[in-house]
Design goal:
The chain folds into two domains: 278 residues, LCP protein (Aminopeptidase, 3-Layer(aba) Sandwich), CATH 3.40.630.190; 46 residues, no CATH class. The protein is 37% helix and 19% strand. It has 14 helices and 15 strands. A six-stranded mixed β-sheet has the order 12-7-2-3-4-13, sandwiched between helices. It has a three-stranded mixed β-sheet with strand order 1-6-5, with no helix packed on it. The two termini are 37 Å apart. 39% of the residues are buried.
Length: 383
């Protein structure tokens, strides 16, 4: 079995798909085709409907060649990835990790949407035979192969085909929320994270010499004690509140919160909360009738997303959107703590020597059969 360093970068760069720039209407349609999918495919459908109504580009829609969405057994499945870097433009670079991994499945028959979140620590094997955490597959792939390799892995894990993918930088969440003027979020569980990393401070010695740092390490001091200046304390109180982009980004990225909010699964649930909040604000009339906001939303999307969703699929998404009830989106998270009926199909092995000493999660049954059955139940009834 081959193993890969889960933090190694390959070739130092990432291939990106350049976005065509056209008029405002063309930009709006392309934004709907992919940006909405970034915020969950459900948003894309409804968002497109209302934006089209606002701009009324009937002649443009009429010229779009109807292209059926790719689907299998009546469902279209989209892989949504969140990375920590811009994915287009001058500031782009190969993403180190895809810490958000979400599959959105849209039923063309039942007109339903199911969102499946996968933990970044899931141990998998990629098409090249290398084993790593699932969040490292994209970065460890050869240039131009990351998305396809990760799609293949997800198909193996979930037992369903992946028809499209969207890669989004975390910067997009912050920019979109600020453009929208903030979003309303309900914090279910209050928590404090005493070690939230401060951007661009990861190499700061906090005024200590190498000798001082070495001595503190020998004394068993924690990173937080040694490098105190690299971290800040963030607090989220229980209840409904309005978050700006920076606050919302901290809310979804926090990994060391107390009250059981430091788990990968709690983080996934918080991410879905922000997605829902963005959807609600995006679909408000104040946004949909504001051309400046729409253009700014597109510009943010263009700099922060990479997708294989083609322009011709827009019309098919639009037609499907007329029949979907977006208030009935089902969200599930694969984890190691819930009951099997709720997605608790993974576990953390005590012996980590087989996994380079890393914290990982693997299927309870040793294969993906149980996960396949779980996914089938959610997608095809019996939830």
């Amino acid at each position: 079995m081959k193993y890969m360093d889960m933090c190694r970068k390959t070739n130092g760069t990432v291939s990106t798909i350049k976005n065509e720039r056209g008029g405002l209407q063309t930009k709006t349609l392309k934004f709907i085709a992919a940006a909405g999918l970034v915020l969950t495919v459900a948003v894309a459908f409804a968002f497109k409907d209302k934006i089209l109504a606002a701009f009324n580009p009937i002649s443009v829609v009429a010229t779009i060649t109807g292209t059926n969405l790719k689907e299998t057994d009546g469902r279209t499945n989209v892989l949504i990835l969140g990375s920590d870097r811009r994915v287009t433009g001058a500031e782009s670079g190969r993403p180190t990790l895809t810490d958000t991994i979400l599959v959105a499945s849209i039923g063309k028959v039942d007109k339903d949407v199911v969102l499946i979140s996968l933990p970044r620590d899931l141990w998998v094997k990629d098409p090249n035979g290398y084993s790593s955490k699932i969040n490292a597959v994209y970065a460890l792939s050869k240039e131009g192969e990351g998305a396809n390799n990760l799609r293949a892995v997800l198909q193996d894990v979930l037992g369903i085909p992946i028809h499209y993918h969207v890669m989004v930088s975390f910067d997009l969440f912050q920019e979109i929320i600020d453009i929208l003027g903030g979003v309303e979020v309900t914090v279910d569980t209050a928590f404090t994270d005493y070690a939230y990393p401060i951007e661009n401070m990861e190499n700061n010695r906090c005024g200590r010499t190498e000798e001082e740092i070495k001595k503190m390490e020998e004394e068993g001091k924690s990173d937080l004690e040694i490098y105190f200046c690299r971290y800040e304390e963030i607090v989220f109180n229980q209840g409904t509140q309005t978050m700006d982009g920076e606050t919302a980004l901290k809310f979804v990225r926090s990994r060391h919160g107390n009250n059981n909010e430091g788990t990968d699964f709690a983080r996934s649930r918080r991410q879905q909360k922000i997605i829902t909040a963005i959807k609600n604000k995006s679909l408000s009339i104040q946004t949909l009738v504001n051309p400046t906001k729409l253009k700014n939303l597109y510009d943010a999307y263009a700099q922060n997303t990479d997708t294989d969703i083609d322009f011709g699929a827009v019309n098919s998404f639009y037609l499907l959107s007329q029949q979907i009830n977006f208030d009935r989106v089902v969200s599930v998270v694969l984890d190691d703590s819930s009951s099997a009926e709720e997605g608790g199909l993974l576990y953390h092995p005590v012996d980590s020597t087989l996994y380079n000493g890393a914290y990982v999660l693997i299927p309870q049954t040793g294969d993906y059969v149980q996960i396949h059955a779980f996914v089938q139940r959610y997608l095809f009834g019996g939830k």
